[in-house]
Amino acid sequence: LAFLAGLLEVIPTIGPTLSALPAILVAWGVSPTLALATLALYVLIQQLENNLIVPKIMSQEVGLSPLVVILALIAGFRIAGIAGAVLSVPAVLLIEIIINDLYKPHYRK
User: Fold this and answer.
1) N or C of the chain: less Cβ packing under 10 Å?
2) pTM score over 0.85
C-alpha cells in the first residue's frame, strides 16, 4: 500500500485519493472503525502536505514565497485543471524571470 501511495503521489490532486482507496478497503475488511480512522488519517496527511509542506519546500527551492506558490497552484488548477496546477509554479517563475530581465537594466542606469 505504501509503494502504491508513493507511485500515485506523482499525480497531483487525484493520486493521493486513488492511493487512499485500497488502504480504506483493506481497513474495511478488518473493521468499519479502522476504515474511518484510515480515511481520517489520509485526509489529515493530505491537508498537511498540501497546505504546509509542499508550499514551504517549493518556496525554498524556487525562491517564491509560500503565498505566491499557493495562489499559483490554485489559479493554475482553476484555469487548466491538473495540468494547470503542475505548470503553474514554473509559469510564475518564467514570468518573474522575464520581468526581472526587462526591468532590472532600467534600475542600474
Assistant:
1) C
2) no
